[in-house]
Q: What sequence folds into this?
């Protein structure tokens, strides 16, 4: 029996969590796959390296052993290489300050990369910490660890701190501060720990498992350990039903983590075919069983919720070319195409092509007789996919929305913000729709604007519209979509706005336009369906909400919960004719995305993941998009204002800018024009009521909002 210690709550059942995907899988099971093909060759083969996709169409390959003839053999390198995933061209990347192999990589929220220590061959630099700046394309030494380490692990704790764990013959741990560049020691581990994996489901602090004390057949545990910050102690955490070394981990679209295989003995070399699913509640459940156990393998999340496992060392130290599909929803395992070159200690990157096709790259690695292979192999699916994960970094962000890797922050917890995130391509909805996403609310504050519910406002909205991929609606109770061109919105509303006929502080509504505008008003002709019963209370405390929207024929069903089970629709509308609502063209496609807003009450709104079902779901956007306008910032001086006030902008425009003054309810109380060539606009404060307002300045499709407080 598999147990979980020191964690409350119960696992909803990972096989149940994704059971809602099965309807889709039945329609498009076993999407035909092409074979692996050699896509590129590195200048030099390497193993025990790291690779990272840079979101600009290139993969950065970092460090590792060169000129190897065996495991842990070769010369550590500081060199990096860049693989263009469109052309297969390989070029030299910026070199690190120190060579390194057997090191961990941590990705920061902004996409930058940090590497820690590793084996350098000379001893110099084995405690050095280097950061790769994506924007500057260069490495910089940013600090030093308390200890030299190799075969260690590292994980991001928050925006500023990274925990570094163990290593070969090493029982120490430390936390490195990105802000100060300093590292502080933690209480020692129960014993030395090398080759650990990091298990970090959504909303759970990382736990470390899959390590051993030193060399082959040395002690290893069925229990993971986790650092408890308040007590500065390492505590026994998750319990597995095997004691394995160097498994691989993949975070699933649900936020759970799939832990894959590893060795149970090294002399003789024996692997386990077991996998495990770890949830944010700290529950551990057996996952799909591999047909072949493996260690030092590669794995990645495929677009349809499956995990692709490739290569590695099999029993008796055999170098594997075999690959497998693991389906966490069904517990099934299927054979995948075989690699051309058997290898271990490689890395896998799964990305999506410009045409929307999933592509897996297996990069270099150690072979059985020829040392390191320089080959990079690729596997592509033969259609756009039966269940497409959308990289959040590719969404088009409008207003206050920002990409805070790996999530999208639609709004910060600040007053009068609004943000939108539109998918990079149109969605084909002519034959229906099946979209799943996760969102999170945090740092709620009503600022005295009480609505008889939890602090915070206003909520997250999924929107379909056929105007532009750059539109955005009103702040406050407009939830970022009110007054955008006609379409359809499904709002997950976290505030009670009586003026809009909201029934409660937590409700889900399906809204449509009137032929001219989308409205957030819960009255005909805008309201199609609304529900409060069974709707989870939308609390801005950092918990994750799972949502699914399904359109079959003219019936739209909306699901939402905090577990990911999504078994029962909470809202159903039976008269949703998207052809009529969206005036669909011959391609049946429309823009899709998310909006959110704050008013005087505030909270942060984050999108954590998006999946769309259906083959050939995304189509190209060929529309001529209206100009976003010239980038600028603005402020009101003085603040607060009593008798006189001026709006100042950072740069004058070659065209007029519309200025609207909105009251606390989101109602426009005055319209003005900032004429072309001017950088200031006087506000008629004597005609504006006392209280909190927002000044909106629009240039093309770009809108800048600034607060205005009027006192008497």
A:
């Amino acid at each position: 029996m598999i147990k979980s210690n020191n964690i409350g709550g119960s696992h909803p059942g990972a096989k149940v969590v994704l059971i809602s995907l099965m309807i889709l899988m039945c329609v498009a099971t076993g999407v035909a796959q092409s074979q692996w093909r050699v896509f590129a060759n590195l200048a030099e083969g390497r193993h025990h390296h790291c690779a990272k996709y840079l979101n600009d169409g290139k993969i950065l390959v970092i460090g590792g052993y060169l000129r190897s003839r065996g495991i842990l053999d070769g010369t550590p390198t500081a060199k990096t290489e860049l693989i263009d995933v469109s052309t297969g061209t390989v070029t030299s990347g910026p070199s690190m300050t120190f060579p390194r192999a057997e090191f961990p990589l941590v990705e920061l929220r902004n996409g930058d990369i940090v590497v820690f220590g590793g084996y350098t061959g000379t001893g110099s630099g084995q405690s050095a910490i280097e950061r790769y700046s994506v924007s500057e394309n260069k490495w910089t030494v940013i600090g030093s660890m308390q200890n030299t380490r190799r075969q260690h692990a590292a994980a991001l704790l928050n925006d500023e701190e990274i925990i570094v764990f163990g290593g070969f013959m090493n029982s120490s741990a430390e936390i490195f501060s990105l802000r100060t560049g300093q590292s502080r020691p933690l209480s020692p581990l129960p014993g030395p720990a090398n080759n650990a994996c990091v298990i970090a489901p959504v909303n759970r602090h990382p736990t470390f498992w899959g390590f051993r004390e030193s060399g082959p057949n040395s002690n290893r545990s069925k229990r993971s350990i986790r650092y408890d910050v308040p007590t500065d102690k390492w505590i026994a955490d998750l319990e597995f039903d095997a004691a394995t070394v160097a498994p691989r981990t993949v975070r699933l679209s649900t936020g759970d983590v799939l832990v894959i295989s590893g060795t149970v003995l090294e002399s003789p070399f024996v692997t386990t075919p077991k996998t495990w699913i770890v949830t944010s509640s700290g529950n551990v459940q057996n996952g799909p069983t591999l047909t072949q156990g493996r260690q030092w393998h590669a794995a990645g999340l495929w677009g349809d919720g499956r995990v692709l496992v490739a290569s590695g060392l099999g029993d008796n130290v055999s170098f594997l070319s075999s690959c497998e599909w693991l389906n966490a929803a069904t517990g099934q395992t299927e054979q995948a195409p075989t690699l051309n070159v058997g290898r271990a200690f490689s890395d896998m990157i799964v990305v999506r092509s410009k045409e929307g096709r999933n592509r897996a790259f297996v990069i270099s690695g150690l072979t059985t007789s020829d040392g390191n292979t320089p080959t990079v192999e690729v596997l592509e699916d033969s259609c756009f996919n039966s269940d497409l994960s959308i990289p959040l970094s590719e969404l088009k962000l409008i207003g206050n929305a920002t990409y805070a890797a790996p999530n999208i922050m639609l709004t910060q917890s600040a007053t009068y913000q609004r943000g939108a995130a539109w998918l990079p391509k149109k969605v084909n909805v002519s034959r229906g729709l099946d979209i799943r996403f996760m969102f999170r609310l945090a740092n709620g504050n009503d600022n005295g604007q009480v609505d008889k519910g939890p602090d915070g406002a206003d909520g997250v909205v999924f929107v379909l519209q056929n105007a532009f991929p750059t539109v955005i609606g009103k702040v406050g109770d407009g939830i970022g979509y009110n007054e955008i061109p006609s379409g359809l919105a499904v709002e997950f509303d976290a505030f009670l706005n009586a003026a809009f006929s909201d029934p409660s502080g937590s409700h889900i509504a399906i809204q449509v336009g009137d032929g001219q505008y989308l409205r957030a008003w819960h009255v005909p002709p805008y309201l199609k369906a609304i529900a409060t019963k069974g709707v989870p209370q939308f609390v801005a405390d950092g918990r994750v909400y799972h949502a699914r929207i399904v359109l079959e024929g003219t019936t739209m069903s909306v699901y939402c919960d905090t577990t990911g089970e999504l078994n029962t629709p909470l809202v159903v509308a039976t008269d949703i004719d998207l052809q009529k609502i969206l005036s669909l063209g011959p391609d049946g496609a429309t823009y899709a995305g998310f909006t959110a807003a704050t008013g005087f009450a505030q909270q942060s709104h984050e999108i954590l993941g998006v999946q769309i079902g259906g083959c050939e779901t995304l189509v190209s956007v060929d529309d001529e998009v209206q100009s976003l306008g010239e980038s600028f910032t603005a402020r009101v001086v003085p603040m607060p204002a009593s008798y006189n006030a001026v709006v100042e902008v950072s740069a004058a425009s070659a065209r007029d800018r519309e200025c609207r003054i909105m009251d606390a309810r989101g109602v426009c109380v005055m319209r003005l024009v900032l004429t072309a060539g001017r950088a200031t606009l006087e506000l008629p404060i004597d005609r504006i009521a006392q209280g909190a307002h927002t000044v909106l300045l629009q240039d093309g499709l770009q809108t800048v909002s600034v607060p205005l407080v009027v006192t008497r």
